[in-house]
Specification:
HPF/RaiA family ribosome-associated protein; RHF-like; 109 residues; four-stranded mixed beta sheet; single chain; Double Stranded RNA Binding Domain
Length: 109
């Protein structure tokens, strides 16, 4: 799985980027066969004003499901990342289960 990390702040510490990449890989490890690429974008929406303004967008390119885009907001970047990853895994698992379910047959009553 290819993981790309984008941030609105230039000059993010390399250790922080590695931590984000490691977190994405560990959470999506179970679904690795379905996810070909994960693009993580972290932004500070309104600058240094504070508040719930850190936005994380995760775009997953999947095999068989197309692209899945998840957006979350939180007070800090780590919280926004965790929320987005939780939603992404939940959505992928739901899509996978739907695809595995047999189609309903119309009853012949």
């Amino acid at each position: 799985m290819n993981v790309l990390i984008e941030s609105s702040r230039s000059g993010e510490p390399q250790a922080w980027r590695q931590q984000v990449e490691q977190r994405v890989r560990s959470v999506l490890h179970r679904l690795q066969g379905q996810v070909q690429q994960a693009r993580v974008s972290l932004r500070d929406i309104n600058g240094p004003k504070g508040g719930v303004d850190k936005q994380c967008q995760i775009m997953l390119t999947t095999a068989g499901y197309g692209q899945l885009v998840i957006v979350s907001k939180a007070e800090d970047a780590q919280g926004a990342l965790n929320q987005a990853l939780q939603r992404a895994t939940h959505s992928l698992a739901r899509l996978w289960q739907r695809k595995r379910r047999p189609a309903r047959q119309a009853s012949l009553a």
